[in-house]
Write a structure and sequence with these properties.
Blueprint lengths: L1 E4 L13 E4 L18 H6 L14 E7 L5 E8 L9 E3 L26 E2 L5 E7 L2 H9 L1 E7 L12 E9 L2 H6 L3 E9 L11 E6 L5 E5 L4 H12 L6 E5 L13 H15 L3 E4 L2 H7 L6 E9 L5 E11 L7 H10 L10 E8 L14 H19 L3 H8 L19 H11 L2 H14 L6 E13 L6 H5 L2 E6 L5 E4 L9 H13 L6 E3 L18 H24 L3 H12 L2 E6 L21 E13 L5 E11 L6 H20 L5 E2 L2 E2 L17 E8 L20 H13 L5 E2 L3 H9 L18
Parallel strand pairs: 1-27, 3-14, 10-28, 12-13, 16-17, 20-21, 24-27
Antiparallel strand pairs: 1-2, 3-7, 4-6, 4-8, 5-7, 9-17, 10-15, 11-12, 11-14, 15-16, 18-23, 19-20, 19-22, 23-24, 25-26
Helix pairs in contact: 4-5, 7-8, 8-17, 13-14, 14-15, 16-17
């Protein structure tokens, strides 16, 4: 890994000359501190960390969900086998829900349980709940529940759906006029399928009823306050009666953003009925078959260019498959649409996006949140444009990439922190892009028919908005707090969760740096809604930038109070201050970043306070006999603003790159009649350590002046670039374009043979006729 520090405009440059230095080497003009160790690392390493399934509650029962096996049907009845002994089994149906039968989120359209007479909208839809003191009885009871239904006609093709979740239009300039003047119009249709988050720890919730009639939830989650909101509404409880506590969480990637609310509600309903703790722990099969995935999408792209390579117009249509219910689909589509034209200046852009319903399990949050789908299409269009023009894809990107002062399709002026050219040059240089392409060309010229391995090198670039889209952060009104306890301890209070990305490490690091103390002098409170304020969800690469920025402001306020009172530096005076004055808590609430407010009605203005920028160079080998693609190396350069903890940031880049390599090559979910077919670890393939390419990460620093530490986001950014880089490399190796993800061996062979590719992943195929 290397860190490339660039001057930021308009703030005063941090260094005089851009340099590339090895990780851990001091940058000229700014010494890098010794990095703190991972806070939760020792407990995870030694096995002392307590995940949800490790928590012990005496007398707890086990919970299970009875699910539909039909994609679309009306529920007529629920029959319990009278021959079975139900005395040790609790049964919960929709009639047992004390409040509204909805999982509250953006649109309250998803029921907690399907009521009698209600419509089942997808296979695996929850219909009723069971609990028992032992697993064997529970398993037996599930087999004795029969659902009576009337079949309804399902819709699986998103382009045939008439039920729309969201629709957005972005227009700038006159696309039709500009397109008519173009010397070349490149048209492409790109299709991407579902992707499973496959966090290492499955979904898990434990509900514990309280003597005051309330409920406490312990579980694996990203957003405790999402669960808190859903629980208070559906259970008819006050905010004080519901407590949500995050247990150690083994990964999320968006899959534990909204779905845990459903499991928590199920566990709570059972716990309230049996008046004892209930454990809802999904096994891997149920986790894959029932939970949300990355949205499949169809992106149609028209690019108008002049013969000398000027980008004249872009016309983009995006159709996303939301599945059966809204979940987070409007926000996913929004980000996908805003990023659909790619990180390139163009005066004439039209982007129309719509998200529709199908009778498949709902789709939701996944790392990148809509941008990987649309930026894949945008990057393939750039690669094809370079091919038509007969020029280097690198040179074309150099010409088209955004600069400071350029205007985006929403009308946002990029005033600062634009690292597009820096990441492009860093990736191209480190990945030896031009040299490898030349060598590949020479190898193709010399290749004989006996040579059955073809090598290729690909390039892609992306941008990714930092934080929530548009007015999202304003609506969240997040609060982060810093506490000085009466015994002189410094404590961070936020709802931002740790799920492997390093939150528990960087927050104390940021606060300690602001206060002038050592990181180990700063504690972090548990993510418990009865203790910490609502600092917003741990999503959208906002944790370090938004919440971290609030903590620095709170630290500055606390430091000023202590030093004004004691006349001493904070590090010397804070314990004395605590002894004399007692506990002190500073709450810092989000205030809007500078810039033009975003208009949610017209989709104009500053969509994000700033953007992160990324570029990737990938080298692949393609087996011309089997169609197998081996990704050998990937170089990812990412502008993440100020690097807070280079080791953790590097881990984010490596993880995001590997997930994107899987998205590009092997991660495919197959559906028949609306049901996921490969819903086991044995059949849903992801890259393992043996499949991982050699990944080189380059962290580029273009600090953002709107946040006190200059940080932007890192977690999602690398997910946007590796997949199109791999597909571009396949073209470099074989000369054929593949427009669908993943580029499985079947699709590669079909492209080489010039025949129609296998069906789109994610679009459910009809069940075979077995009459």
């Amino acid at each position: 890994m290397t860190i490339k520090t660039m001057p930021s405009a308009p703030p005063t440059p941090v260094v005089e000359t851009p340099v590339v230095v090895p990780s851990g080497t001091p940058t000229p003009g700014r010494a890098r501190p010794v990095l703190p160790l991972r806070r939760e690392g020792p407990e995870k390493l030694t096995g002392l960390a307590k995940y949800a399934d490790d928590l012990v509650f005496p007398g707890a029962w086990f919970g299970a969900t009875v699910r539909s096996t039909e994609a679309h049907a009306r529920l007529v009845g629920i029959d319990l086998d009278p021959a079975f002994d139900w005395s040790k089994v609790a049964v919960v149906t929709a009639t047992d829900i004390p409040g509204p039968n909805v999982v509250s989120l953006i649109s309250d359209d998803q029921p907690i349980l399907i009521p009698i007479g209600g419509e089942i909208q997808h296979q695996e839809e929850p219909v009723c709940l069971l609990a028992s003191p032992d697993r064997d009885t529970l398993r037996a009871a599930k087999r004795r529940v029969t659902l009576r239904t009337e079949r309804l006609e399902p819709v699986f093709d998103p382009e045939q759906s008439t039920r729309e979740f969201a629709h957005y239009t972005i227009e700038r300039g006159d696309v039709d006029a500009a397109m008519s003047k173009a010397d070349h119009v490149i048209e492409g249709t790109y299709r991407v399928g579902h992707q499973e988050q496959l966090y290492i720890e499955g979904q898990a919730m434990i509900a514990v009823p309280r003597e005051d009639g309330g409920i406490t939830i312990h579980g694996s989650c990203q957003c405790p306050y999402y669960i808190h909101t859903a629980m208070t509404k559906a259970l008819g409880m006050t905010a004080q009666q519901v407590v949500v506590i995050q247990s150690e969480t083994g990964g999320g990637f968006g899959g534990k953003e909204e779905y845990p609310s459903m499991i928590a509600l199920h566990a709570a309903l059972l716990a309230l009925k049996v008046k004892r703790p209930v454990r809802m722990i999904y096994d891997r099969h149920e986790d894959i078959s029932a939970t949300t995935k990355r949205h499949p999408a169809i992106v149609r792209h028209r690019t108008g260019i002049s013969r000398d390579g000027e980008l004249l117009a872009q016309d983009v249509e995006v159709v996303m498959d939301g599945g059966a219910y809204t979940t987070l689909t409007p926000v996913v589509l929004s980000r996908g649409v805003i990023h659909a034209a790619g990180p390139y200046r163009c005066d004439n852009v039209r982007i129309i996006g719509r998200a529709v319903a199908t009778n498949t399990p709902p789709n939701g949050a996944f790392r990148g949140f809509g941008a990987p789908q649309t930026e894949f299409a945008a990057e393939m269009q750039v690669a094809r444009s370079a091919d038509v023009l007969g020029i280097s894809p690198l040179d074309l990107r150099r010409r088209w990439a955004y600069n400071e002062g350029d205007t985006t399709p929403t009308g946002q002026v990029l005033r600062e922190s634009v690292g597009s050219h820096e990441v492009l040059e860093a990736a191209a240089e480190t990945g030896a892009y031009e040299r490898h392409r030349s060598q590949n060309h020479e190898a193709r010229q010399a290749r004989t028919s006996a040579a059955r391995i073809a090598s290729g090198t690909g390039l892609a670039m992306a941008w990714h908005g930092a934080g929530f889209t548009g007015s999202g952060e304003v609506h969240l009104a997040s609060v982060a707090s810093l506490e000085l306890t009466d015994d002189g301890r410094i404590r961070v209070l936020t709802a931002s969760t740790e799920m492997g990305q390093g939150t528990k490490t960087i927050f104390p690091q940021l606060v300690a740096d602001a206060l002038g103390v050592e990181p180990d002098q700063v504690e972090i409170a548990p993510q418990d809604t009865s203790i910490v304020p609502n600092s917003g969800p741990t999503v959208a690469s906002r944790t370090a930038m938004v919440v971290g920025g609030l903590l620095i402001k709170a630290a500055d306020e606390l430091k000023a109070l202590v030093e004004a009172d004691t006349g001493m530096p904070f590090a010397d005076g804070y314990q004395r201050f605590a002894q004399e004055h007692g506990p002190m808590r500073v709450d810092e609430q989000f205030t809007p970043y500078p810039g033009e407010p975003f208009d949610d009605a017209t989709y104009t203005g500053d969509a994000y306070p700033c953007f992160g920028w990324a570029a990737c160079v990938a080298d692949v080998d393609v087996d011309l006999d089997t169609g197998e693609v081996t990704v050998k190396t990937a170089v990812s350069a990412d502008d993440i603003g100020r690097v807070i903890h280079s080791v953790l940031a590097e881990g984010q880049v490596e993880g995001g790159t590997l997930q994107a390599v899987g998205y590009a090559t092997i991660e495919e979910i197959k559906l028949i009649d609306g049901r996921y077919q490969n819903d086991r670890l044995a059949t849903y393939l992801i890259p393992t350590a043996l499949d991982a390419p050699r990944i080189t990460s380059i962290l580029v620093e273009k600090p953002y002046s709107g946040s006190p530490h200059g940080a932007k986001g890192v977690g999602e950014l690398p997910m946007d670039v590796a997949a199109p880089a791999v597909l571009d490399a396949i073209h470099d190796a074989t000369g054929v374009w593949i427009s669908e993800l993943p580029a499985t061996p079947e699709r590669v062979l079909a492209a080489l043979a010039g025949i129609e590719a296998p069906p789109l992943p994610g679009v459910s195929q009809p069940a075979p006729d077995r009459r």
